[in-house]
Amino acid sequence: MLEKTESGRKIRKDSFESIVGPERLESILLDMYCDKLLSTTQMSVALTDMFDMHIGAVKVYSMLNRLGVIRSKSEALSIRLSTEKNSVEVDAPMRAIVDGMLLGDGSLSINGRGDRARLSIGSVHKEFASYCRSLLSPMISSEPEYRPAGEKSKGGRGMWSTHTIYQDALADIYKKWYIDGVKIVPPDVNLDPMSLLLWYLGDGSMSAPNETNSRSLYFSTNSFSRDDIINILCKGMEERYGIKHSRVTRDNRLFIKTKSIWPLLKVMGGESPVECFSYKFDIEEWRTWESMRNVAAQLDIDYARLANWVKNGKIDHNRSPGGKKVMFDENQISTLLSRIESGELPREAGKKARVPIIHAAGNLQSKQMRCRSDETHDEFIDRVIKTYQADGFPYVKMGRDDIVKKWTAIKKSQYITPDEDIVKWRTPGLSLAEFFHPHIYDVYAGKNPPSVVFSNRDLFRKSLEMFMKCSGKDYLTYTDVRRALCRFGSRKVNSFSPEVVRDLINFYGFDGCSVFDPCAGYSGRLLGTVASKHYPSYFGIDPCSMTCDGLLSTAEFLTSYGESSDVNIVNGRAESVVKVVGPSTFDIAISSPPYWNKEQYSNESTQSCNRYKTYGEWLDGFLEPVISGCFRVLKPGGVFIYNVGECRSNDIPNDSVTIATESGFVVEDRKEIRFKKAFASEGDDQFFSEPLFIFRKP
Predict the structure, then answer these.
(1) For the CA atoms of the chain, what is the radius of gyration?
(2) Which of 237, 331, 338, 244 lies closest to 289 in space, CA to CA?
(3) What fold characterizes domain 290-342?
(4) What are the pLDDT digits (tens) for 590-624?
(5) Which of 4, 123, 281, 474 could form a disulfide with 128 if both were Cys (CB 3.0 to 4.6 A apart)?
(6) Per-residue model confidence as pLDDT tens digits over 250-261
(7) How many whole angstroms separate alpha carbon 172 and alpha carbon 258?
(8) Residue partners of 447: CB distance under 8 A and separation at least 6
């Protein structure tokens, strides 16, 4: 119910202003604000204690503003700025955090105009409220507030709450999560590891084992509809992570299958980020072991052969409680793999063990698809698309023999030195570099990445049509399909040519030299460095966890093949890691930096495009510390080999030279790396170039 005041403004009868009364309210506000000179924040606390109703600082400011008793314009401006700070961008990582909190105990409230909303989180644990506050920074400025339990509170425990300031971007999220004020699960809800973690911490529980050794893990999803739970949440977790649910109860609690409990906990990081919820990850060790069937699939071993090794006592293994199932822990799996790789345990009878390191399970690699006599060209393209989408993305596939063959070719073909102004780009070693990094096909580089084109039937068709037209081929091989996906309708980020790096190290290095790479990327510079005749050491940094996994896999292969094992890979931010590396440590630095936001290598918060919102911030926060850091870690006389391409939106090459010279480097030379254009028409320019700078530390 609403009633009108003398000014004609309508207020609710049960509102704070109506309960207190206008005359008494005015007296209290004037006394606190004009006589006692309390701030609006202090008044908020005092009024909350006085009337046992939460009165926020924004509400206090609004009431004072209507009374016309602001003490000064500067204070009014300060208050207004603090309450209207709404320019924080909700990027992909932040959206995942917001969605995770809304899946749990979080809620969004929207202002009267419907153009701003704020996110509120409540918990009986101050530690969790503080953790949420840290994740939502800088949208939250105040510490968590404690509210004592009311008469109707369950268990009599108070609540720690925290909330953001009103944000424009949160209003858009509100409209997806709330329909006519009712909270739903939007179809595009984030089910990233961070979202699942916050959902579990907020609304998840795990029971103790019962008499049959089973456990229950469930989410309290009673505020959502059954259809949303099954069709969006359950389906999303199963499709993305293979996490299956056992049931959804009448009160809409979502139970996870016992076999999926540990895989789900692994997706969420395996441990709680806050001590108060550590019990939610307390699980018996045997539940983390892998079954024999999973190990057989993981190591590409015939199940019967693995069972025979177990039966004859040839390999170490464990058993589940009761001794029913054969299971393997991480150390046992690692030992088993080593024995297979060494040939001690042959993968096939009478043959030496081989490790087929293949990123997809398809069988199309050796096939060539041609148009049949009974089908049209369109039908042929449809058949190719259907076959490949069923088989999986055409990643670079190699067994160990193939890897060794590629590596040997890189090692032996050392005959070019970059003594001229033009350095020719060479491609043979790129497939080996990209083999260790299958996620390279998911990277956004200004257009749809190849994996997106592959999953979209229309885009896939267009890429195949363009490839066949430009190449003049009337058939398609496995490699052709991958090339079509990477060159037409999409843009694949490049790895660095190992042969080019090898020749540069040979030319500027010496026996035993040490190499520093602050932006390690997709193994091209690692392979080229180790392939050089000087056999130098290599220290690489990269912020992307998947890229670092690929770099480590590359280093493990090199070590197993008997190459130099002096390779160090750090998963971290280059501008931070370079500060803790010792001065005058390396002989050569070589790198190609990220192009700010032109190439988005992952959604992780460590990525420079996610940390720096403008090009100027990126120059000051990333590029300058990295280049000046290279100067610091190089020995006197050391060389910094630096490749960076041109960008339409900014001038990274010239800005890089300015930073390098201001850091103390001398520009010794500038070369050009020459690339050949794919499928260039006759008469067109067949090449394009990127600058390659040679800086030297005096």
Answers:
(1) 31
(2) 331
(3) Multidrug-efflux Transporter Regulator; Chain: A; Domain 2 (1.10.1660)
(4) 998 887 766 667 677 777 767 787 888 888 989 99
(5) 123
(6) 888 889 888 888
(7) 37
(8) 489, 490, 491
